[in-house]
Design a protein that fits this description.
The structure is a homodimer of 143-residue chains. Chain A has 143 residues and is mostly helical. The first copy, chain A, has six helices and three strands. Chain A has a three-stranded antiparallel β-sheet with strand order 1-3-2. In chain A, strand 2 (79-83) and strand 3 (91-95) form a beta hairpin. In chain A, helix 2 (33-44) crosses helix 5 (97-117) and helix 3 crosses helix 4 (63-75). The longest helix of chain A has 21 residues, at 97-117. At the A-B interface, helix 1, helix 2, helix 5 and helix 6 of A face helix 1, helix 2, helix 5 and helix 6 of B. The first copy, chain A, binds a DNA duplex (30 and 30 nucleotides) through helix 1, helix 3 and helix 4. Chains A, B: One of its GO terms (molecular function) is DNA binding. Chains A, B: Keywords: DNA-binding, Transcription, Transcription regulation. Chains A, B: This is MarR family transcriptional regulator.
DNA sequence: TATATAATTGTAGCATGCTACATATTTAGT
DNA sequence: ACTAAATATGTAGCATGCTACAATTATATA
């Protein structure tokens, strides 16, 4: 069994390829893929207030990782943050108008990339792929 | 469509989960997953000489990335390198005895993780998963 | 042969992930 | 009410990925 046939290795190659292509596309917006994913989350959850902890839980990364990404987004004025008045430990994160405007332009690219990834697959194959990936994810989490 | 259902997002979650689990396991050997993959490659190709360029091509990463990993491996004496006498631009990479010994201990963990990932899947499902992932990889490369 | 191009490796600096440690605030227990 | 534990965020330093620029050697071409 060569490494190139390991599921884990193929998944790494796919992930890094997605990142490279997405980052090339997002460069025109002065964004990276990780940063764009945060903006998508904030847009999808704009009815609720979002804390750093919410983002850590959703993206399953540690808090220093989230802080770094948020600092860069705030530096570029795509988001703003303010301390929660009811619990001063918490910082709430909001999209700025600049961030909201960007979302509309990016939504198109997001759908395009996701669709190109699964072209040549039948609907059944896509369903199967989803199911198997979720099984793999569950398995790896249990180790 | 929520982000959690995007194939690209699930693949990112799987990849980072694999890295975390593998790095925990490999800590006892003073290795990371990326470093271990290099050692596996060198062991699998021990009949041929390996240059930095060969590793860049196989792992599909840029040369600064490979140089960083190799420097850390050489600092820990798992590999050694020497300039190719026939082409002085080229540096050839070799496993040391320390690196060879480690390989045997790690091979067990590699197979265990890869098997746990695909448990609960039938052979047909595993074949389908492989095929679909390779299609996705091809698609994303063409963007 | 001399020079231009290509190929291989090296360095600097950045983004995103991590662990470990620190700080501030809230909650729980006595 | 006071202290201990839990929770949320912040900082420092590292590994792995990247781009951009540089240096060396080999190859190709005028």
């Amino acid at each position: 069994m060569q490494q190139h046939d390991d599921i884990g290795f193929i998944i790494k190659l796919i992930n890094e390829c997605i990142e490279k292509k997405a980052n090339q596309t997002l460069k025109q917006f002065d964004l990276t893929l990780s940063q764009a994913r945060i903006l998508f989350y904030l847009h999808d959850h704009n009815e609720a207030t979002t804390s750093q902890k919410d983002l850590e839980d959703f993206f399953e990364v540690t808090h220093p990782t989230i802080i770094g990404i948020l600092n860069r987004l705030e530096g570029k004025c795509f988001i703003r943050s303010e301390t929660n008045s009811k619990d001063k430990r918490v910082k709430n994160i909001f999209l700025t108008d600049k961030g909201i405007n960007l979302f509309c332009s990016m939504e198109h690219f997001r759908k395009t990339i996701e669709q190109k990834m699964i072209q040549d697959l039948t609907n059944d194959q896509i369903r199967e792929l989803h199911t198997s990936l979720k099984t793999v994810y569950k398995n790896i989490q249990e180790i």
